[in-house]
UniProtKB/TrEMBL annotation:
A single BP term in Gene Ontology: polyphosphate catabolic process
UniProt superkingdom: Eukaryota
Organism the protein comes from: Mucor ambiguus
Keywords for this protein: Glycoprotein, Hydrolase, Signal
SUPFAM superfamilies in the record: Metallo-dependent phosphatases
InterPro entries according to UniProt: Calcineurin-like_PHP, Metallo-depent_PP-like
Gene Ontology CC: one annotated term: fungal-type vacuole
Domain Calcineurin-like phosphoesterase: 43-303
The protein's name in its UniProt record: Vacuolar endopolyphosphatase
Length: 443
C-alpha cells in the first residue's frame, strides 16, 4: 500500500460541460502514479475554516470585525482571536495552529482541508478584494507546505463559500478555479477539466484502494443564487450530481475500493435545517443511502460546530433516505432505523474562533481489518484551544478535548458503528451532555 500524489483520472469533461448522459462518460485510470512512500500510519488530519485575516487588530472593537479600535481597548479581541464574535482569525492564531501541527501532529498519512480560507467579506469599511482572496489561498498553501512535506503527505483542499471572489456565489467555469489550479499546482492534484469547469475532483490516497471524492458543495448550497437547483438538468448543480452518481456507481463495482466524500458545506445545519437546494438535497441523501457500503467517510466543515449525523432509511418500505442527528431526542426509539444506518456524516469544528479553535485527527483502516474495510474510521482525537486562557497567557496550547471512541462507546464508525454510537448517546445522559458541550468546542 502506498500513498499517491495523483491518480484516478475521471475523464468526464463531456458531461461536465454539456450535461450529456453520464453513462457514456469514459473512466480512464491510466494516469501515471507518483509514489508517496511505503509506510502508512493509519491517521489523517481534518482541518477546516481557517479564515485568516491579516487586518485583525488586537484590542479592536468586535463590532468593527476587529479592524478598528474603539474609544476603549476591547478585552474581547485578544492576541489570538475574539471568541464568539464575527471577527476572523488573526495571523497569530494561524501561526500557532501550524506550529502545533508541525511539532505535534507528525504521524499522519494525508490532510483534508474542507475550505474557507479567506476572511469573511462583512466589513463595509474594508471590502475584500480579489487579490486579497488570492493572497489568502497562497498564504495558507505555504503554511501547509511549511508544516508538512506535501510530496509525502498529500494535502487535499476543497472550496468553501468564502473562497471565491464573491461570498456564497460560485458559478460554472468560475474564475477562482483556474486561480486555485495554479496555486495548488505543486500538490500534483488530479485537477482535470472536472475541476476547471466545476471545482470538483477525485484523488486517490491509497493506491487503488481508497479515493477521495472532493465535491464543490457550493453548487448545492441554497445560498448560492447563481446556480439553479438540481431539478434543472442544465444547472451546474445537476451536472455535478450526475457526475457524483456516476463516480459512486463506478467505484461500487470495484471490489475492495472505498471512498471518502469531502466538501465544505454539509447537507444539513447543526439545527437540522437543510443547507442544500431542495432537489439537490433529496438526490444527495438518496445517493448516500444507496452507496453507503462504498462510502467509508463523509467530511465537511462550514458550521463551525462539531456534529455527527446518521443517514437512515426514511421508512421501512421507502428507498429514500433522511438523517438523524446524534443528539436527537427521538433516537432512543429508533433502534431499528439506526441499525440500517448507511453512512455517518462527520462535521468538524473550525479554526476560526466562533467557538474555541479546533482541529481533528482521524484513525482509519489502512487495509481490511477486524471485519471492517479499508478506510473505515476507527476513532478520532479532537484537539482544541481554550482561547480565553490563550489570550490571557499569551500562549496557545492545543489540548485533547475528547476521543470519539470514549464519547460514543464504539471502535468503528462505519454505518453500523455510527448507528450504534447514536443509540449509545441516546441512552447515556452524561454522554449527551458532553456531546452538546463538545458541539460548541467547550466554549
Amino acid at each position: 500500500m502506498v500513498l499517491l500524489k495523483s491518480l484516478t483520472y475521471i475523464a468526464a469533461s463531456v458531461f461536465l460541460l454539456n450535461a450529456v448522459s453520464v453513462n457514456a462518460a469514459p473512466m480512464n485510470e491510466a494516469q501515471p502514479l507518483t509514489k508517496r512512500g511505503s509506510k502508512l500510519n493509519g491517521k489523517f488530519l481534518h482541518i477546516t475554516d481557517i479564515h485568516i485575516d491579516p487586518n485583525y487588530l488586537e484590542g479592536a472593537d468586535p463590532d468593527s470585525f476587529c479592524h478598528k479600535h474603539g474609544k476603549k481597548r476591547s478585552s474581547e479581541s485578544g492576541k489570538y482571536g475574539a471568541l464568539g464574535t464575527d471577527c476572523d482569525s488573526p495571523e497569530a492564531l494561524v501561526d500557532a495552529t501550524f506550529n502545533f501541527l508541525k511539532e505535534s501532529i507528525t504521524d499522519i498519512d494525508f490532510i483534508i482541508y474542507t475550505g474557507d480560507t479567506a476572511r469573511h467579506d462583512r466589513d463595509d469599511n474594508m471590502p475584500r478584494s480579489q487579490s486579497e482572496v488570492v493572497n489568502a489561498h497562497s498564504t495558507v498553501m505555504k503554511y501547509f507546505q511549511t508544516a508538512y512535506d506535501t510530496d509525502n503527505v498529500p494535502y487535499v483542499p476543497t472550496i468553501g463559500n468564502n473562497d471565491a471572489y464573491d461570498h456564497n456565489d460560485v458559478t460554472k467555469n468560475d474564475k477562482i478555479f483556474k486561480k486555485l489550479e495554479s496555486i495548488w499546482k505543486p500538490l500534483g492534484l488530479n485537477l482535470t477539466s472536472a475541476f476547471s469547469t466545476g471545482g470538483y475532483y477525485v484523488q486517490d490516497v491509497i493506491k487503488g484502494k481508497l479515493t477521495i471524492v472532493n465535491l464543490n458543495t457550493m453548487y448545492f448550497y441554497d445560498k448560492n443564487d447563481d446556480v439553479d437547483d438540481c431539478s434543472s438538468s442544465s444547472s451546474a448543480a445537476a451536472i455535478e450530481m450526475k457526475w457524483l452518481s456516476y463516480v459512486l456507481k463506478h467505484y461500487s463495482k470495484k471490489k475492495g475500493h472505498q471512498l471518502y466524500l469531502m466538501g465544505h458545506v454539509p447537507p444539513i445545519d447543526d439545527d437540522g435545517s437543510k443547507l442544500y437546494k431542495s432537489n439537490c438535497y433529496t438526490q444527495y441523501m438518496n445517493l448516500l443511502g444507496k452507496y453507503g457500503s462504498t462510502i467509508s467517510g463523509h467530511f465537511t466543515g462550514h458550521t463551525n460546530n462539531d456534529n455527527l449525523n446518521a443517514i437512515i432509511p426514511s421508512s421501512s418500505k421507502s428507498k429514500s433516505y433522511s438523517f438523524l442527528a446524534a443528539d436527537d431526542s427521538k433516537a432512543k426509539n429508533m433502534k431499528k432505523q439506526l441499525g440500517k444506518t448507511s453512512v455517518g456524516l462527520f462535521n468538524a469544528p473550525s479554526v476560526i474562533p466562533k467557538n474555541n479553535p479546533a482541529l481533528r485527527v482521524y484513525t482509519y483502516n489502512t487495509k481490511n481489518a477486524d471485519g471492517y474495510p479499508i478506510g473505515t474510521i476507527r476513532d478520532w482525537d479532537q484537539y482544541y484551544v481554550d482561547l480565553d486562557k490563550a489570550n490571557g497567557d499569551e500562549k496557545v496550547e492545543f489540548e485533547l478535548e475528547y476521543s470519539a471512541s470514549d464519547l460514543y462507546g464504539v471502535d468503528h464508525f462505519d454505518g453500523a458503528g455510527v448507528g450504534e454510537a447514536i443509540l449509545n448517546l441516546a441512552n447515556d445522559k452524561k454522554a449527551r451532555k458532553l456531546y452538546k458541550k463538545y458541539a460548541k468546542v467547550s466554549s
